[in-house]
Amino acid sequence: MKTQNIFIISDSSGATAQTIAQTALSQFPDVKAEIRRFPFIQTESILKGILKIALANHAMIFHTLVSIELSKMVRDFCRENGIYDFDCVQAPMRMLAEVTGQQPAHVPGLIHDLNQNYFERISAIEFAVENDDGKNPKGLLEADIVLLGVSRTSKTPLSLYLANQNQRVANLPIGPDLQLPEEVEQIDKDKMFGLLNTPEKLSKIRKQRMISYGLNADTPYSDPKHIKTELEYAKKLYRKIGCLTINVANKSIEETATIILESLNLDTTEFED
Questions:
Q1: Buried (b) or exposed (e) across 54-69, using 16+ Cβ within 10 A?
Q2: In terms of CB atoms within 10 Å, which of 17, 73, 222, 246 comes out highest?
């Protein structure tokens, strides 16, 4: 299978352009793509070098460059050399300028201005790290969101994703052999979310985990019968608490996070570039 090279070029982090590229690629399951990201590109000399590499690698280019000059340089180079490119930001900026009658600032990185929102996000990320995997039971009472789940139900990555949405998140591992901290009884059930998965998927994930550690994959930890017991315990606990239950088996982290944020009537439009 031929590999399609895709270059992400941005004067900021490049996350927006990469998301657009990956969203488009998801509709082509038989296409193998190699994505390379070039963030914080703000000079012509560096941009020229990247464009030459893109040409040598027959790459498509997705770019978010708020500078008219740099964006034009990409378009002109691609047109002259038969490279496909997609400008993810200039067209929306032109549309907004036309509708509002205002002119864009053309200043890179404004979305990352060190404002109060930024510092709240950093604080939320620190909180998630400090309150990961039940390390700090007292933190459960301070959290905006508390995630419950048996091992390998995406608690940690989901916590960090939600922290990037400025939510203070704590997560707690549960199971028949684990004792719940007394703080659980004091938490508002509407802030608690029970995560589930299928025994088959959990078994596969746990086996891969054991192999990555150089250990035997076939253990009670990865045995589907043992996992079923864990999941039954989790379901019973979630019913007792009365919290929202989410099966993450066929959901991305983003989908699960959206369900949680919408259930709390919180903004789900946070994004970065």
A1: bbeeebbbbbbbbbee
A2: 17
Helix ranges (DSSP H) in the chain: 15-25, 44-56, 68-81, 90-100, 116-130, 155-163, 199-212, 224-241, 253-263
Q: Kindly report, residue by residue over 151-164, the tens digit of the pLDDT.
A: 999 999 999 999 99
**pLDDT tens digit string along 225-244?**
999 999 999 999 999 999 99
Q: Return d(Cα 158, Cα 164) in angstroms, integer.
A: 10
CATH number of 116-263: 3.40.50
**What is the fold, at CATH topology level, of the domain defined by 3-111?**
Rossmann fold (3.40.50)
159 with 147: CB under 8 angstroms?
yes
Contacts of 91 (CB under 8 A, 6+ apart): none
Instruction: Return d(Cα 19, Cα 197) in angstroms, integer.
Output: 26
225 contacts 177 by C-beta, under 8 angstroms: no
